[in-house]
Amino acid sequence: MAPVMHRIGGEGDAVVLIHGFGADRLGWVANSPALLDTYTVWAAELPAHGTAEPGATTPIDIASALTELLPQNDKPIALIGHSLGGAIAAHLAALRPDQIGKTVLIAPAGFGSGAVAGDFLTGLPGLQSEDEALQHLRQLVVRERLIMPQMAQYVLKHLEKPGRREALAEIAQAALNFELPALPNEALVIWGEEDAINPPDMEWLKSLGERAMLLPQTGHLPHVEAATKVNRRITDYLAS
Questions:
Q1: What digits encode the pLDDT tens for the residues 161-188?
Q2: Which positions ≥6 away from 37 have C-beta within 8 Å?
Q3: β-strands 77-82, 100-106: how paired?
Q4: DSSP assignment, residue 82?
Q5: How confident is the model at residue 67 (pLDDT cuts 50, 70, 90)?
Q6: Of 67, 101, 75, 81, which is closest to residue 12 (Cα–Cα)?
Q7: Could you give the angle at the alpha carbon of 47 between the alpha carbons of 45 and 48, nearest 5°?
Q8: 0.70 cut: is pTM over it?
Q9: DSSP line for 92-133
Q10: What distance in Å separates the CA atoms of residue 92 and residue 129, rounded to the nearest whole number?
Q11: Fold of 4-114+175-239
């Protein structure tokens, strides 16, 4: 089965949001409202995530499947991808250079320091209790209060869907060892300085100059933890 593409709303040029491992389209609730006044916002759901059935498991194969779901637009489509979704966005930009314009990569998988917390990825599909899920998910952020019990319950509910745990386990393994896509031209890269899941490569980010945004006291979810700053930077970048 293919990924799923949801039209969130808005009018204007298309922006496609691509979530990370274990998330879904609702992971963008702090960001999509900032885009809706200017853009038509779409949100992908990766295989075995959200409403999408299990299917492709590697970043390149998921990106290939997404090429069939891109909105039809006369102007280039902007991509915003987080973590695994960042790697998929980079692959997608390489696969469809004629369709894809600007890209925003938030803590993109494969582009960090290399010290990826593999236990976070491989452990998520096996979560059983609310307490276990809360402890696991709180690794994503610096301010643990951002991860509420309802989020843990939501993750556990989706893990109970048929074939979901097995499919996520395959995606997790693929995410630990995959062909790294090229960094899209003029991509904006956003990272949390205290990302414990996919730690940033400080020297590489420094080399990007104004194309990089490094946020202090922020973990793996900068678009949630520092939503106001991130939204402002993204909208300025897309408008430039």
A1: 999 999 999 999 999 988 888 899 889 9
A2: 10
A3: parallel
A4: E
A5: very high
A6: 75
A7: 100
A8: yes
A9: HHHH-TTTEEEEEEES-TTSS-S---HHHHHHGGG--SHHHH
A10: 36
A11: Rossmann fold (3.40.50)
* Assigned token pair, 63: 């990106």
Pairing, β 212-215 against β 188-192 = parallel
Residue 84 to residue 27: CA distance in whole angstroms: 13
Residue linked to tokens 């900032």: 34
Which H/E stretch holds residue 44? strand 40-45
Q: Reduce the DSSP state of residue 143 to 3 states and report it.
A: coil
Q: For tokens 């204007």, what's the residue? A: 12
**Residues sharing a CB contact under 8 Å with residue 179, sequence separation 6 or more, in sequence order:** 59, 60
Q: DSSP letter for 161, please.
A: S
